[in-house]
Specification:
The chain is mainly alpha-helical.
């Protein structure tokens, strides 16, 4: 009798853990996907679908025409390209500046290392509302006001602390012995970094790029203050869609969601690899 109990309890415990695990996965997917589904329903369903209640799981009368009408609105295409340009600038500069800083923090010991790490974090302690006026004056003086490059530089400042500290953790996970072995076989420090460290740290660097892209794509305050005619999509939608029909607002929301989802889907292989999960 005791043998039966000892063998059935672990089995029931394992099945309960499995049910709990998949229930959590289902809840998380519902938490993420249901709002996106409702936004897409409002964007493609037009005015009728927006005000319909209760919502049907399989809606009828869905058409791409309301979303295309939103895309043809004057200024949407230019704002989209401005957002894309600012996000790409943010990603490139965050990686080019943040990865070397993270590598230095991970590999070298120098005076003031802890203070430097703290100062990197303190750059996020000042809200943009306080810095808006001096930033505007400085950008006007140097000719960066109302430019995509100016917005990209501000977004880089927002993403850079995250990039430096995350890449530090990534480089700490790459054994130093691998670099030392490369030096023994004749590689310089730069060659050892490019051939050994960079490929191993690539999933973490890609993850950093994803978060830098999302930070830039979703940021609205700096883009609203520092631009007038060359506004990003978030700033444009904030000013233009406040008086627009509700289904236009849903179309704008879907327009903001899709690029981030596409970008993350495109680099999903590297994101899975950072946790040791293969994607085929």
């Amino acid at each position: 009798m005791s043998t039966v109990i000892s063998t059935t309890r672990p089995a029931s415990f394992a099945s309960a853990r499995k049910v709990l695990f998949w229930s959590g996965i289902a809840a998380l997917c519902a938490w993420v996907l249901i709002p996106i589904y409702l936004v897409a329903l409002g964007a493609f369903g037009g005015r009728t679908s927006v005000y319909q209640w209760p919502k049907s799981i399989f809606p009828t009368g869905v058409s791409i025409e309301p979303f295309l009408l939103f895309l043809n609105t004057e200024g949407v295409g230019a704002a989209f390209m401005n957002s894309l340009g600012a996000a790409l600038i943010t990603v490139v500069l965050s990686i080019l500046l943040g990865a070397p800083a993270g590598y230095a923090l991970a590999r070298y010991t120098f005076a003031g290392k802890d203070s430097y790490r703290l100062l990197v974090l303190l750059t996020r302690a000042f809200p943009l509302a306080i810095l808006a006026l001096p930033l505007t004056v400085s950008f006007i003086r140097v000719g960066l006001y109302d430019t995509v490059l100016g917005v990209g530089l501000v977004h880089t400042v927002l993403a850079l602390p995250f990039a430096a500290l995350v890449t530090q953790g990534i480089f700490l996970g790459v054994p130093r012995e691998l670099e030392e072995a490369a030096w023994v076989f004749g590689c310089s420090r730069i060659e050892a970094f490019l051939r050994i460290v960079a490929p191993l740290a690539l999933p973490g660097i890609v993850a950093t790029a994803v978060f830098a892209f999302v930070i830039s794509w979703n940021e609205v305050f700096a883009a609203s203050v520092l631009t007038v005619s060359n506004r990003t999509l978030t700033a444009y939608l904030l000013t233009v869609l406040s008086e627009s029909p509700l289904h236009y607002r849903f179309a704008g929301g879907l327009m903001l969601i899709l690029p981030s989802v596409v970008f993350i889907f495109a680099v999903r292989r590297y994101l899975f690899a950072i946790w040791g999960v293969s994607s085929k």
